[in-house]
Structures are given as C-alpha cells and as structure tokens.
Amino acid sequence: MIRIKRPEGWQNMPQIIGSFQIKGQEICKTLELPWKNNARSISCIPLGTYNVTKEPPIPANDIHGRKERPYWHFRFHNVPGRSGVLIHKITYVSGLKGCVGTGFATKDLNGDGLPDMIRSGDALAELVKVLPDQFKLTIE
User: Fold this and answer.
1) Phi, psi of 90 (to 5 degrees)
2) Which 8-state DSSP code applies to residue 129?
3) Other CB atoms closer than 10 Å to residue 138's CB: what's the count?
4) Interatomic CA distance for residues 69 and 105, integer angstroms
5) Domain range for 32
6) Which residues have CB under 8 Å from 119's CB, separation 6+?
7) Minimal CA–CA distance to 139: which of 38, 39, 6?
8) CA dihedral 103, 16, 67, 38 (to 10 degrees)
9) Residue 56: how many CB atoms within 10 A of its CB?
10) Contact 124, 73 (CB under 8 A)
11) Is the pTM of this model over 0.85?
C-alpha cells in the first residue's frame, strides 16, 4: 500500500507535515498547505485514494502552458474539483499551490516559525526511483 499519512489534528494545522509510506515504511516526509475545504491553490486535497502517474520533466515554454519543472515528478488524477495537483520538490510551504512537497527532514530555514523541507530534491528522486509509473495513493 502506498500512502501519505497525515498527523492527527491535520485539519487545524497551519501546514501539514505528513509521512509518505510504502507498505508502512516511511520513504520521506511530505509538506502540504492547510485544509481550506479543498479550495484550488490554497488548500491541501481531501483524504481519499487517487490515481497517480510519474511524469517526465516539463520544459520551459511548454506547449500546454504548464509551469517548467526540469525534473521528474508525479501527477494526481481524479481529485474532486481540482486539476494540476502534483508531488514535487519544495522548500517552503509558501511555494505550494495545492500540491504535495517532499523532503527527508524539516527545519525552520526562514525564521517564520514553520518547518521547511530539507533535501526535497533527494526525496523526490528516491520516490521516482522506487515508485511505478502508475499507482494508487491513499491520503489518510
């Protein structure tokens, strides 16, 4: 089973630090926006099971108008009322627009009192290495 485990009380947190797990073993940490009723670009996504695909880098000036991402990442499908939800590297929660960021540890890097992600690119690379091209991901 592939899942993101959110902590107890996640609905009332200013940001969500979770655990990305495969068969119960943590692979890395996750960073998400707070819960704001699934509002696009300002909320984490709802609990549930989602289809996810591994996607290649997105070039600058993408013909589909997508934001450049010069690295492999993952895309959620079937998120109610949402599109463009990804798993990608991130350092600060302020850089998220409803996606899930990855990292191996947290530390307040910018002095705002909130934990930030450390070694995000390394964590994402590990997920790219160990996860299949398509899978179901449960957020709980």
Assistant:
1) -160, 155
2) H
3) 14
4) 22
5) 2-139
6) 103, 104, 105
7) 6
8) 150
9) 9
10) yes
11) yes
- CA distance linking residue 110 with residue 87, whole number of Å: 22
Give the β-pairing of 86-89 and 100-103.
parallel
pLDDT digits (tens, 9 = 90+) for 40-77: 999 999 999 999 999 999 888 888 888 888 899 999 99
Predicted confidence band of residue 102 (pLDDT cuts 50, 70, 90): very high
From residue 22, give the alpha-carbon distance in Å to each of 12, 19, 136. Answer: 26, 10, 11
Alpha helix (H) ranges present in the chain?
120-130
82 in Cβ contact with 38 (< 8 Å)? yes
Residue with tokens 């289809």: 51
Number of domains forming the structure of the chain = 1
**Cα–Cα distance measured from residue 101 to residue 91, given in angstroms and rounded to the nearest whole number:** 8
Cβ pair 92, 99 in contact under 8 A: no
Query: How many angstroms separate the CA atoms of 120 and 45, rounded?
Result: 20
pLDDT confidence tier of residue 8, bands split at 50, 70 and 90: very high
Residue positions counted in the chain: 140
